[in-house]
Design a protein that fits this description.
Length: about 675
Amino acid sequence: MFRDVETICPFCGVGCRIVLRVDRGRVVGLYPAENGINEGKLCIKGWSAHEFIHHPKRLTAPLLREKRSGTFRTVTWDAALSHIRENLSAALDAGGPAAVGVLGSAKCTNEDNYVLQKFARAVVGTPHIDHCARLCHASTLTGLSETFGSGAMTNSIEELEKADVMFVIGSNTTEQHPLIGRRILRAMRDGVARLIVADPRRTDMARCAHVHLAHRPGTDTALINGMLRVIVDEALADDEFITGRTEGFEAFLGSLREYSPERVADITGVSPEMIVAAARMYGTAEKASIIYAMGITQHVAGTANVRALANLALATGNVGKPSTGVNPLRGQNNVQGACDMGVLPSHYPGYQPVEDDGNRDRFSRDWRTDRLPQQAGLTLCEMMDAALDGRTRFLWIMGENPALSDPDTAHVRRALEAADFLIVQDIFPSETTAFAHVVLPGASYAEKEGTFTSTERRVQRVRAAIEPVGSARPEWAVIAELARLMGYDGMNWRSAEAVFEEIARVVPQYRGMSYLRLGGDGLQWPCPDAAHPGTPFLHEHTFSRGKGRFIPVEHVPPPEQPDEEYPLVLTTGRSLFQFHTGTMTRRSPILKERLDESYGEVNPADAVRAGIEDGDPVVIRSRRGEIVTTARVTETVPEGTVFVPIHFAEAAANMLTLRELDPLSKIPELKVCAVSLKKRTRSQGEA
Ligand code: SF4
């Protein structure tokens, strides 16, 4: 007899609702839920989200690395937790709380993440807690918090397609967030919206756009400033909105002086006419939405790019109303939630700064601890540096794979190797578990209760369809048990629901939520009390910070430019058929059939220069390392640029990328670096 259990897709941040079909304790299939943001549809990743659950490679029991042989042996949970407790106590005795670094997960539930950060702060006392939002949307958080007072998507997915103009920049939406891409294309098809796409690549979405701005990688700020200059010069700015709702406009105006369409054309490679056309289209719209993703954020100028987009929305009054706003699309299912839960070195749950004495006092009382750190901690990339130079000795990584996902992975792997003790909680062996001293089997999304928060701030229920495989356990329950073993009595929850009740108590944006209320379509935060219906769009009458703030931004070129030795620009991204580092999707037969190998997109002119034909094996090299992949000769990439997807360990794009950080948000420059390209032949090596 089948049983159907409704839950949430575990891949991108759209938050599509799926129904898992269960037969005799196994998930045997799935179908899309009729309601919800996905309107009874799924992308190909969503359709295959059941395929990895019972994969034979799943981690099913705790593993402990033998000191002498370096191999793993299976142990009981009691043995694993007591080994961790001994080593954690030793690390605390030797180096104090600051010797411990903890990384949460944008794939795990809010409950898992809340408990992990509470363990780090209240039990261990370390300030070093972060997660992979540092690599995707840290600059969104910084940029939008400063300008609007909240770092989240301002509007809702449903509203996007009711805009007159959609400005998509740095987002290959039809591949990265397919069910949002579908809505954008539908609005165009129905003649509701006009579409501007800014992307160096000629993606499917760019091909459909009314205006495609194929700017050079790393020139986003200049492009947006150029559009703003046209809007101001042609009196398309919304003076009433600027006067009534914003501050800092006069100083900001002066900063546009250097961004004439002609100068911006020199910087970006986009013609002045196209810049003017895009500015007029956006500037004359009644309701214009900005939609962006990691093409904007993953730069040393990531915060500047986000500020520039906020300036554009403020100058035209396109924020605080339905179908407008600045809308960052989150890459993973629960990036928004992990940030909300305070898996950030600078903020407690609910974006409450850790350096505020009042917040610290309140959380000390609530969590019954005197261990809360006084300062903000290290970010993800800084923790890796600290592991290498011996400041961080003990690392706990939950549900992430930094040995593949982080920039300059050779550096990251050296850091993981250097740690005295590394715990990895995951559902599959990965490039990162290979470095662990203890591996703890986690429960997949189909095996635990909890919540995910989608890109539009919608908190939705995740439901257990089956028992965890083998002796795997939900991550939060394991961490809570370790806390009890360490003598802490503030983690005595009996269920994920009890954890969520505590979340609702300490996170102001979630205060009016409960599992009962989240049962249907979920709720969008802020939801301040039990009668509140949730908030589809932010900043309606006032910004979260009071007034919207213009912040002048200048174009800063990417830190590494092409030269004689490395004459091309590498940019990276994702494919429709794979997700993140492939730990789940590369175990799906459907998705493997569609794409299971890396490739490098090369423009035909660059291919001719390098003597490369479509399908040739090629070596792509940067100052950090090299990869071997297969050339796809295509006009999708402009001359001088190579594109490599991030999913494949055998040709890990991040072997090539830079560790240089945005000084404000500490996000690394993952989108632009200089590379060389050569054909590789079997007999000769490189030709
Ligand atoms: Fe899952 Fe995203 Fe596809 Fe929806 S669009 S089915 S959330 S991967």
